Amino acid sequence: MTRLNRGLVALGAAVLLTSSALAGTATGRLSQPNFMPNGVVVIYFEGTRAGVPSCATEYRRFAVNAATPQGKVQLAGLLTAYTQGKTVNIYGTNACTAWGDTETIDFFAIVD
């Protein structure tokens, strides 16, 4: 790998780390899914949270827009984790676009 390519790879990694470091993160179990009339699902979690954006006054929950194809996929995973009592790592978008006082989920992973 050339010096230029190594530099570009390092720069790309730094950008990814910086953008995810600015967003909210949480680790824990999910509880109390709420299904809103506009297709948004708001779900609470029990665990630790860091990097809460100022718009997220409801800091113990996250939102997903299940009215979109991408949101439907996320909802399926969230409900699977919820019904099985699994621990999840959630990474937010650092914005409350799906539900005004709740950070929108960027992605999440089931960890146990």
Sum this structure up briefly.
Residues 1-23 form the signal peptide. Keywords: Signal. With 112 residues, the protein is of the alpha+beta class.
Task: Characterize the structure shown.
The radius of gyration is 16 Å and the shape is globular. The longest helix has 20 residues, at 3-22. It has one domain (24-110): OB fold (Dihydrolipoamide Acetyltransferase, E2P). The chain is built from two helices and five strands. The chain is of the alpha+beta class and 112 residues long. Residues 7-20 have low confidence and may be disordered.
Annotation keywords:
alpha+beta, OB fold (Dihydrolipoamide Acetyltransferase, E2P), 32% helix, globular, signal
Poorly predicted parts: 7-20
Give the helix/strand class: alpha+beta
| Number of helical stretches of at least 4 residues | 2
CATH topology: OB fold (Dihydrolipoamide Acetyltransferase, E2P)
CATH class equals Mainly Beta
Give the overall form: globular
Proportion of helical residues: 25-40%
Q: Count up the domains.
A: 1
Which percent range describes the beta-strand content?
35-45%
Major sheet strand order:
1-2-3-5-4
CA distance, first residue to last residue: 37 Å
Average of per-residue pLDDT values: 87
Instruction: Name the helix and strand elements from N-terminus to C-terminus, one letter apiece.
Output: HEEEHEE
Query: Which radius of gyration do the C-alpha atoms yield?
Result: 16 Å
- CATH structural architecture: Beta Barrel
How many beta-strand elements?
5
Reported for the largest beta sheet, the result is: 5 strands, mixed, barrel
